[in-house]
Specification:
320 residues; Jelly Rolls; 3 domains; 10 helices
Length: 320
């Protein structure tokens, strides 16, 4: 397969991917295309068997796409076996179809959700106990109230809970491996990934449990938990941290990967951080959600990054 000159300029991302990662991206696109065939699936399985690195690269693409990990598919460029993946390889917009259709749509929806919001949408839900939930963009949750417990499962996204006090029925928000319990309070849960769930308390206090560990979080404080542990509480300004409710996003020395995960809830298409160092870099930004169409331009003007628009649905962000 010859080299396509379209992959050699600064307006494309192929030259930033190692050969196996490029193949993995191509297979991911092929398998999510509407016209995928049995022969395609058979060839894909054969490709997986050829090298353990193939499976690892493909799984990494899946994790990156789902948002469950900030690990990049970009590795140090390898000079051996340089296999050029061209736009023709993707075939009739297969990548665009994947991003704009099946895979991205599956990510945006959740089959078990009672309530959900689309990208850029905000919604307020009033519950049977008169508690309310303000939902951020791209959020999904389910409600399960009984005589002993008021349980909300946050499947993805971010939500602000204003809880009516009921001493006989605790109000619990389950997100990933943790549970946040309140009696009567106001708090926010931001579910970025299974290893990055952030709880912010605006009024009174909550108790958080992950496995055998638990912590109390008071008003004006915030902590982050993962699948195995709970981080230390940090004093914060709730008005800034919960600015999305007023139409703005405020990020103060936040990892860039986390910032992008939040921004993806508010704009059409998908932003991907292509590099672990860039994903970990702390940034400070204020974003006006009324001008979400300018988010990419704001990032490019503010930060030392290189923006590559693959399609109208996918934008890759590299270190400059």
């Amino acid at each position: 397969m010859g080299t396509d000159p379209n992959w050699t300029d600064d307006n494309d991302f192929g030259k930033d991917l190692d050969p196996i990662s490029r193949e993995a991206v191509t297979w991911f696109a092929t398998l999510h295309a509407d016209d995928v065939t049995k022969a395609d699936r058979s060839a894909f399985r054969a490709w997986l068997r050829q090298d353990e690195r193939h499976r690892a690269a493909f799984e990494e693409v899946q994790r990156l796409w789902s948002g469950a990990s900030e690990l990049p598919i970009v590795k140090a460029r390898r000079r051996e076996r340089r296999i050029a993946v061209t736009r023709r390889t993707l075939g009739k917009g297969a990548l665009a179809a994947m991003i704009g259709g099946g895979a991205w749509l599956a990510y945006q929806q959740h089959p078990f959700a009672d309530y959900s919001t689309g990208t850029g949408e905000r919604r307020t839900v009033k519950l049977a106990d008169n508690s309310t939930i303000d939902m951020a963009g791209a959020t999904a949750l389910s409600i399960d109230f009984n005589s002993r417990l008021r349980l909300v499962t946050l499947h993805r996204g971010e939500a602000y809970f204003s809880v009516q006090s009921e001493t006989s029925r605790p109000f619990v928000v389950e997100a990933a491996a943790g549970r946040t319990m309140a009696i009567g309070t106001s708090f926010n849960v931001d579910y970025i990934s299974d290893d990055d769930v952030r709880v912010t308390v605006a009024r009174h206090a909550v108790n958080i449990r992950v496995g055998a560990a638990d912590a109390r979080l008071d008003a004006g404080s915030q902590l982050t938990y993962n699948h195995a542990s709970i981080g230390a509480p940090q004093a914060i300004d709730p008005a800034s941290e919960l600015g999305w409710r007023d139409g703005r996003l405020v990020f103060l020395s936040q990892p860039f990967g986390r910032v992008i995960a939040s921004l993806n809830r508010w704009r059409q298409g998908r932003l991907m951080v292509m590099g672990s160092a860039l994903a970990a870099r702390p940034v400070t930004l204020i974003i006006d959600l009324q001008k979400s169409e300018n988010i990419v331009a704001t990032l490019e003007d503010t930060l030392p990054i290189r923006v590559v628009n693959v399609t109208s649905y996918l934008t890759l962000l590299f270190e400059a």
